[in-house]
Amino acid sequence: MRNHLDAKLMAKQLRQRLAEKSIELGHGECLELVAAQFGYADWNMLAARIALTRQRDADGETGIRFKAAAPILRIYSRDKAREFYLDYLGFHLDWADAPLTADAGPATLYTQISRDRLVIHLSEHHGDGSPGTACWITMKGIDAFHAELAAKEYPNMRPGIEPMPPRLRVMEVIDPFGNRLRFGEFTSRPIREDGSPV
């Protein structure tokens, strides 16, 4: 059975079959039709998916494996970090090399927090991260997460969910130190600028 890796061959065969019926379409037009059959907005999106699949296959043959990255975000207040990341966003404190409280003394903090499979490191160390860093976080359940945050009484943040056609919805939150966390969920069907399905 054919899959998305056979898209170019499928487009070539489609063009040939249509030509037999005196219907002339260019190769590019046939690629676009095949991409639509697989549910992609256009050929460029499908081509990117094919390239990603081939790279993953190649890495599998060489044994190269990468685990999830953990961004290091710079913080300046342990109390504000705890209030934002633990109380508001619902992360858990995994470990810390100093207490996550302001009255803990002069030790510089480096800590790991997590929620589900998302891991973030928070650091007071000079040179770790830069204020205003942006992190992209792919997720599922963005509506439920948005509702969870909206139900909390955190005075400094009221994020919304923004549609980003063709297949993405994004909610951005900004921590007290200017770091931006962009939570994105891909949609199963293409969407319009207003977020409605195409």
TrEMBL record:
Keyword Cell inner membrane included in the entry's annotation: no
Family recorded in the similarity comment: Belongs to the bleomycin resistance protein family.
Domain of life: Bacteria
Lineage: Bacteria, Pseudomonadati, Pseudomonadota, Gammaproteobacteria, Lysobacterales
Species this protein is from: Rhodanobacter geophilus
Stored Gene3D superfamilies: 2,3-Dihydroxybiphenyl 1,2-Dioxygenase, domain 1
Classification via InterPro entries: Bleomycin-R, Glyas_Bleomycin-R_OHBP_Dase, Glyoxalase_8, VOC_core
Domain VOC: 65-186
Protein known as: Bleomycin resistance protein
SUPFAM superfamilies: Glyoxalase/Bleomycin resistance protein/Dihydroxybiphenyl dioxygenase
Alphabetical keyword list: Antibiotic resistance
Keyword flag Transcription regulation: no
